Amino acid sequence: MMKNGLAGLTRRNLFALALMSGVALSGAAHAQGKSLTIALTADAVILDPHAANELTGNIMFYHFYDPLVSRTPELGFEPGLAESWQIVDDTTWVFKLRKGVKFHNGDELKASDVVYTFERLKKALMSNLVANIASSRAIDDYTVEIKTPKPYAVLHMALAEVLIVNEKYTKAMGDEQMGLKPMGTGPYKLAEWVKEDRLSMTAHADYWRGKPKIDTVTFKPITNPATRTAALLTGGVDVIQDLSVRDVASVKANAAYDVVTRPSLLNMVIAIDTREKSPTIDLPTNPMRDRRVREALVRAINVEAIKTVVMNGFATPSEQYVPSSHLGYVPGLDFRKLYPFDVEKAKALMKEAGFEKGFAMTLDTTNNRYVNDGAIAQALAGMLARINVKLNLNLMPRSNFFGYIRVPSDKSSFIMSGWDTPSGDAGNMYSTLMYSRGKKPGFGQANRGSFANDEFDSWIDKADATADIKQRDAFLKEATQVAAREIPMIPLHYEQDIYAAKKNVKVVPRMDKFIWAYEMDVN
Amino acid sequence: MFGYFTKRLIQIVVVLWAVSVLVFVMMSFTGDPTYMMVPLDATEEQIAQARRLLGLNDSHLVQYGHFLSSLVRGDFGRSFVFRQPAMQLILERLPATLEIVILAMAIALVVAIPLGVYAGASPERASSHAVMAGSLVGISLPGFWLGMVLIYVFAVKLQLVPSSGRGPTQELFGLRVSFLSWEGFRHLILPALTLSVGTLAILIRIIRAEMMEVMKQDYIKFARAKGADRRGVLFKHGLKNALIPLVTVFGLMMGDLIAFATLTETIFAWPGIGKLLVDSIYRGDRPVIVVYLMFVAFMFVVVNFVVDILYAVIDPRIKVK
Amino acid sequence: MKRFAASELFHSFRHNRSAMIGAAIVAMFVVMVSIGPWLVAQDPYDVAQLELMDSFKPPVWLEGGVPQYLLGTDGQGRDVLASIVYGSRISLFIGFTAMLGSCVLGAALGLLAGFYGGKLDSVIMRIADIQLSFPSVLTALFLMSAFGTGADKVLIALISVGWVVYARIVRGSTLRESQKEYVQAARVSGLPNRKIILRHVLPNVLTPLIVVATIQVGTFILIEASLSFLGVGVPITEPSLGLLIKNGFDVLFSGLWWISVFPGLFIMLIVFGINLLGDFLRDELNPRLK
Fold it and tell me: Which locations, inside or outside the cell, does it occupy (chain B) (predicted)?
């Protein structure tokens, strides 16, 4: 049989066989180095770290580039390209660069690259990343001095989001090519990018932290959650991002795989309009100016039910506006304990405030931006109906949403959106979302409900006036207490990140949702 | 002939210009894409800067002026999201779309011609009625739904083919194609099949109707009377004459296939221009939408132009005017 | 005369099995959307009636199904059958209203173009030409992406793509009719144009319009479904059949097939019925094939 089969091979078949074995051989040679394939939910759109800020892109950026200060998976901050820094006076910081850091092209990192990066960012789409840098200069090749416009105790934390580019290379490439051919000091170099198919990268042998353990990393965009799971189970992929909650049980049951979950930083919050007259409420005065009505709204929302049913258990009800890792978090303070779910109490509060008959208003939110956003909105409508608040839903694709709800938010009364603060500091969220509007430039720019509270503002002012991080934390805690009492927004839950991986892969889930191959390993 | 060419050329330019104006006017209704690009805590100055970078600071009229003037220089503008030339984004994804469109067209023709000829030649048979009923079902069902059902049955339940995405690709004449490898072809089957059904159903009906007309013609009756065998008459005389009108609907069918590819590609996560359009709509990526529509319009005009010429070649009775 | 035509039509209708089936399907849907809401237990559009805890129940004949939800429930605890009844209302309403709108607009423009000719004619017909060079799904998709979601906007988008075919037919017939002696005579005798159009021209183009209109309702239902499936059609709180399919698509891979499969079957059924009727009408009313 066997002999016959072989004899039957024509010359052409033999040739094909030879070719195939060649392929197999090169594959074997390849396998000597460790490789890892990771399926993400989307493809990056642009590889220039100064031109975009969305998760998939960020994941790629941190493989190619480094920041001065690195963020740990637990949201701690440690030296990155800068080995140390000190605060000279209230508004002056000096950063000492690590020596001998090599870009992918062999150039050494110099202070001039850092200064150039700040300047480039100021003119780029992501200019907000350097909003707290007034000026910078290179004192020598390895020392950078940064001036902030006002005392800013968390500058180093903010710098964790600023990725340093090579001045010479960037100038030579131009903006368009920078989007396609990233080149930084990061642990990986771009090997090939076939859009919407794969992006592969190879280890940067001279990486300053040491050569990466995994030699080749490939990212594949697989949008459909079920397909992602299938790709993992059929072996094509080693790690997947966002395992579908419906597949968690079956993947967990399989001994060959691990499921890793962790709460993310993305807090779903509802902004409550507190203006005299609210755009979608057909009443002479806005009922939600009354704190009791706001409390009733909180008490009528069953966050646990949303978690179990809508989110399939994969959400963490939010205690406050920021997670416990952040400056400004008050230990022990919990919205769910302060205002537990209680429809009767909520009804009583509505009655007390004179709105027993309730009112109707519109909830504006997205239908394709956050996990199950549309379903959460519908669940909210059902819950608030029980206290006679009729919620009309206005669900928009995100392309319309952010322009629609934009301050002055003159079309909205009740807005649900997500907010995350990877800088690890509540101050950013508070000054943007809750500080009185129009008092100071750069404050309250996303205060959609026009919440205005002098006490709250004063705590933020104090926090911003100190360069001492402990004092800042204390002032922000005071602000948190005021907000928990006044309820300018309703915090719902943090989305949960779920990864699945083969057992032999070490996955390090990060609070900022980034997937960083440098921290991973394959056995 | 030369006059005809210039006339058509002018017509093409006018159509494209009209499309560009229309698209620009319509796009001014959409939300401001800046807000999707900038972080939520961006200040007014940062937003203004982003606007400037994206070229959104000017009035729509000025923006259109810029668009036209760079168009003359062969620059179709760049995507807000990718920051790459919009035309390049489309050309990159074009092979993937052409791949399923062409395969779908092939499937449709291969299946529809024999069925249509048969149903047209013997319209009263029960099996012909079944073919016609089947084609009516094909017209009546939503193609995207059929795609989902096919995925559920063949990919999820039977696990015969992959449920979505494009398989490995090879270079062929500088284009990335996936039908050369078995794995790539497996990815191609369901999307192409889904896409072909609507066209297939319509084709059957057109061929049948033409066939019925042709069968009434004298030369068929003569041929039959002369004792030529039935199959020979059907395919040699009947089909040949029935196919001529098909050429005219070719342009329309291509149009439909490209249009429905937006849905098919979305369901199968097929990285073609249709998915790019839908994604761009979600992202408010105006330049890509504009260039996509102009590109598709251009394709149609060219296809129709070629069809006219072909028609004149095939059927000498018609003179190119 | 009219009655005679009607009865002849009726006669052949009674002898045409597929036409009867088509009519039966359409009639069934009309009954379903008019009295259905009183028969189903739940108003799927009233969020207060939805029970989150009842989400993702399978159809009654499968394990875990409950009699209360015959065809199962979706992720919000919405009864699939009730959703289909309400969704069919929206789909049929949009399909039918958009057809009427297109017909009126297209016929008006076609009459104007055909009767008056000249500049007006060439402007209207140029627009029609340009539009015809685009597949209607694509045009509608693009219009919706500019307008944003909403049933009213779907109607506008559908009418914008639907009028062309009527305009062309009516213009053609009008041109032919206005050459005829009786119209010329009427013109010479000083009859106002409006009367000539209404009395002499319009009745003669009605027949082809009816055929096109019937089939167009089906096409519009499919286009609306496509738009809603892509998320640019009707709003999520009041889903049409197409949007129901989309909602089910996300969980189809997890084996929850009933949420998307049943609405799709209903779309297919209604469009099939309409097309059967349309086929019949075309065969009967179109002299070329008779």
Answer: Cell membrane
